[in-house]
Design brief:
heterodimer; A: mainly alpha; B: about 700 residues; alpha/beta; seven-stranded antiparallel β-sheet; seven-stranded mixed β-sheet; 17 helices; 18 strands
Chain lengths: ~70, ~700
């Protein structure tokens, strides 16, 4: 039975240690890549970076409001 | 994943519509297609890759030549038609239907135009069907893996025999990256880094100079890390290219070296042959002189001996020296005719004297004979033949030497002819120096790139640490400024996320080599049953070593090909395991953590074209025996001469082959007719069709 040497628990713990806002950032960026595919252009990267920066600002504001 | 069905409509030689079902029952999950050359085996393999990815294997038809020619010819003016390939499969409880088609139309002037291929794909879960884009298809079946999941085994064997190991390794390395989804995490890091570097800067005038300096330092550290990281990502590809160039230059140089060696040998042989010709000529001359000299001795010796025999016999008879003078007898008979006392001889006495005269040789002959008889022992060899024997032995030695040198000359001549037929080109020797220089350059480039990557591997962690430290320092200072605090916090969110992605990526990379090596060896040990172990290095270059000593060993080309197949099998088995990585990441709402436990039953199917080609007879049979245990589903496309290797796959009622088909060629020219013996029946490989019909493939189900 194939098993990976990768320690899934370590990854779970690492993600669980993130703040909810950072998990949201992670979800956002991975979802964007899923939608656009891995082979995106430089312009697409810049556009998504801008969007992610905006999202981060909003999340930071929410976090400070909380 | 389980393949369910394949439908072909006007695809290459498959005129009209054909549908096949794949064997998928546990234990009976091997599907076999048998076809002669030209019956559509490669077209069948390409049907999979074209349908799923819009790609075909190297050397296959161009996109504009995929539609069946007879179908195009039958299309009347103003009419059109469609070529389609449809694959249905199940994956993780969802039913997928992937259909790629190409329309065609014949205009009123009779000209045919072929449309761009169209993808129509969907996924059905429960009762709901969702359309899929190409990238969503590739999320299930990654493009980078298709050369392995749809595996032209014949060409891999050819690659290995052509010593193009670099291209095989490059494909393997790409496959590993695809398997791990490394590209996706790379892009995530790119996006975050760009957001931090370009879109979350501290507002100008928001803080003191110290804050600005800290932000600049963080930016500089990030830029340096990014540049180094990007370079580290680019280098493996550049190293692969450089390795390929170095390998090919070295290969050409080896050829030239071999040619130069051949040329040197050719010249040596010429000198050898010339020297041998001179020696042979001397030997023949010495033999000639010796024979001439000795012939006189041999012949005269014989004559003397014969003469002595004759003279001895004459002596024994009393003829020499003469006891009675022939002259006295003549005088007595012709002139005196009386005895010594004067009495006339009687008739009886005359008659007796006449008989005696007849027996007495002439005096001069008797005298000469007598003289000769006394001299012969001196003339002849006194019965001592030692000198002639010595001469004969010398002659024999010369002859042996001559034969030996003749043999040497023949061997040298044969070698020279062989080299000549091998097209030795003396001019090419001049290219050698240039090529050696080119190889030296390519080797230095390769070595430089490898050293650069090693250096980067050492410095990247330091650069990353510096990036984090300067980023933290900047964030602290940003937090102190009311105007910049929000930016600082946003940066913190992004850099925390960046650190996690980076850690996950490292963990995946570190585990991948070990995972692949373990699975390759599990498969290899089943196929080979020898104490060999495949070791995979950081470049995914594999070498085969003795399991006990760990030393690399020389293996046959079949054993190397089996290692390549073991790699294919390892990918198929690891694919579902690594797909589960997705479930660890919070990609969508509800996503979170999942399990990485794999199950061989979840391994991907593999379609193998001419699987037995690179294996050799013994390993082909072994391959058939263990294949069903290695993979839960496989499709074999085999040539008639490979049917013999199916053996255990088709024997018995519960044989692993659950479905079998004959790719039967219908042709007006039944050039290579033959019969496929299958389960006690015979099936024609070629069926003669009407005179002017184009050859077409009919998919004939066989009893399984």
């Amino acid at each position: 039975m194939p098993r990976t040497e990768l320690d899934a628990e370590e990854i779970r713990e690492r993600i669980a240690a993130l703040s909810p806002e950072s998990v949201e950032i992670l979800r956002e960026v991975l979802t964007d890549i899923r939608s656009h595919g891995s082979n995106m252009s430089k312009a697409q990267v810049t556009e998504l970076a801008k969007k992610l920066a905006s999202k981060a600002r909003n999340l930071a504001k929410t976090e400070s409001d909380r | 994943m389980r393949l369910l069905s394949l439908r072909l409509k006007n695809w290459r030689s498959f005129e009209g519509e054909h549908e096949v079902q794949f064997a998928k029952q546990p234990g009976r999950s091997v599907t076999v297609f048998v076809g002669q050359n030209g019956a559509g085996k490669t077209a069948l393999l390409n049907a999979f890759t074209w349908c799923l990815f819009g790609d075909t294997t190297a050397g296959f038809r161009q996109d504009t030549d995929l539609v069946n020619h007879a179908a195009l010819r039958r299309t009347g003016k103003g009419q059109g038609g469609k070529m389609e390939v449809e694959i249905c499969f199940d994956h993780d409880g969802q039913a997928y239907r992937i259909c790629r088609s190409q329309g065609y139309v014949r205009d009123e002037r009779g000209k045919v135009s072929i449309d761009e291929p169209q993808l129509s794909a969907s996924r059905r879960v429960g009762g709901a069907t969702t359309p899929l884009r190409q990238d969503e298809v590739e999320a299930v079946l990654p493009r980078g893996l298709h050369p392995f999941f749809f595996f032209p085994a014949e060409s891999i064997g050819r690659d290995l025999s052509d010593n193009d190991g670099a291209s095989v390794r490059a494909s393997m390395s790409t496959a590993i990256d695809t398997l791990l989804g490394i590209g996706r995490l790379d892009r995530a890091l790119d996006i975050i880094s760009t957001a931090l570097g370009s879109h979350l800067r501290a507002p100008r005038g928001a803080g003191d100079q110290r804050m600005q300096q800290a932000a600049d330092a963080a930016e500089a550290a990030r830029t340096e890390w990014e540049n180094s990281n990007q370079r580290a990502h680019e280098l493996p590809e550049k190293i692969r290219d450089a390795a390929r160039l170095e390998e090919s230059t070295r290969g050409r140089l080896d050829e030239l070296d071999a040619e130069q060696e051949a040329m040197d040998r050719f010249r040596e042989l010429e000198a050898e042959i010339e020297g041998l010709d001179g020696k042979l000529s001397n030997l023949v001359e010495r033999q000639r002189v010796l024979i001439n000299q000795n012939a006189a001795v041999f012949f005269s010796d014989g004559l003397y001996r014969s003469a002595l025999d004759v003279l001895n016999a004459a002596h024994a008879r009393g003829e020499i020296p003469p006891k009675i003078s022939a002259g006295l007898l003549d005088e007595l008979l012709e002139f005196r005719a009386e005895c010594i006392c004067g009495r006339p001889l009687t008739d009886r006495e005359v008659s007796a004297l006449q008989r005696l005269r007849e027996q007495v040789v002439a005096d001069h002959i008797a005298e000469q004979g007598s003289n000769l008889r006394s001299r012969i022992p001196d003339l002849a060899l006194n019965g001592d033949d030692r000198p002639s024997r010595i001469q004969a032995n010398t002659l024999l030695d010369l002859e042996k030497d001559r034969l030996k040198k003749e043999a040497l000359r023949s061997a040298s001549e044969a070698q020279r002819r062989e080299l000549l037929e091998g097209s030795v080109d003396i001019e090419r020797g001049r290219q050698q120096a240039e090529l050696r220089e080119a190889w030296s350059r390519s080797y230095k480039v390769l070595e430089g790139l490898r050293n650069e990557l090693k250096g980067l591997s050492r410095t990247l962690p330091q650069l990353e640490a510096a990036k984090k430290a300067t980023e933290n320092a900047a964030q602290k200072l940003l937090a102190k400024s009311a105007a910049a605090a929000a930016v600082g916090r946003a940066r913190a969110l992004l850099s925390d996320t960046e650190a996690v992605i980076s850690d996950v990526q490292k963990a995946i990379r570190e585990s991948a080599r070990a995972d692949v090596e373990r699975e390759v060896n599990r498969i290899y040990s089943r196929l080979l049953e020898k104490p060999y172990r495949v070791e995979i290095d950081e470049d995914f270059k594999y070498l085969i070593a003795d399991e006990t000593t760990g030393r690399p060993i020389g293996v046959s080309s079949s054993e190397i090909a089996l290692a390549t197949f073991a790699f294919v099998g390892a990918l198929a088995r690891l694919m579902p395991v690594y797909s589960d990585l997705e479930s660890l990441l919070p990609v969508s709402q509800g996503g979170g953590v999942g399990s990485l436990d794999g199950d061989v039953e979840r391994a991907y199917p593999i379609v193998l074209d001419a699987p037995y080609s690179p294996f050799g007879e013994e390993y082909s049979r072994r391959f058939s025996e263990v294949l069903p245990q290695l993979l839960p589903q496989s499709v074999l496309i085999v040539r008639p001469d490979q049917v013999q290797f199916l053996g255990s796959l088709v024997a018995g009622d519960a044989a692993p082959v659950g479905r079998a088909y004959l790719l039967q060629l219908h042709s007006s020219k039944a050039d290579s007719a033959g019969v496929l013996p299958w389960k006690g029946e015979g099936y024609d490989f070629v069926v003669r069709s009407e005179a002017d019909a184009s050859p077409r493939t009919q998919v004939l189900p066989l009893p399984a």
